[in-house]
Amino acid sequence: MGILHRDIKTANVLLTDELTAKISDFSISTRFGTEHSGSALGTTRYLAPECVFEKYTESADVYAFGMLMYEVTHKALPFAECKSGISAMLSAQDQKRPRLAVDLSSPLASLMDSCWQHMPIRRPTIHEVTLLLQRLLQAHTDTEPTDVC
């Protein structure tokens, strides 16, 4: 679709009756290729470190998605120990990341870690994230026990 959302967070995800997640609130979104320098758009706890000083790119949305995955899997805000969003953003710029739960599945933990890499070039594309999540879901569905009457 070629859109940078620029404010991916749990508050901007809606669930359908079938529990399908839908991204909402495109008020600050823009199309790929449009120049956007370090205007630090978005919610600070989810904001990629480079967004303050550099152009906002697709990899910043991937970083924010990693933070969204953290919040969903841990039922806690990213950088919850930080008293403000600004201190959370400074922690991210210092290359600190939220601590992952020990019992989190390895593939999911690895995906989160790859999404919030400090260097944008080291993050997967959103397409790669989607493919991996589909494989994880398929593997989970294949191993889920079925009811036997």
UniProtKB/TrEMBL annotation:
Q: What is this protein called?
A: Protein kinase domain-containing protein
- What is the species listed in this Swiss-Prot or TrEMBL entry? Haptolina brevifila
Instruction: List the GO terms this entry assigns under cellular component, sorted alphabetically.
Output: cytoplasm
Q: Mind telling me which SMART domains this protein's record contains?
A: S_TKc
Q: Name one Pfam family in it.
A: Pkinase
PROSITE patterns on file: PROTEIN_KINASE_DOM, PROTEIN_KINASE_ST
Biological process annotations from GO = signal transduction
Q: A GO molecular function for this record?
A: protein kinase activity
Write down the PANTHER family for this protein, in alphabetical order: SERINE-THREONINE PROTEIN KINASE
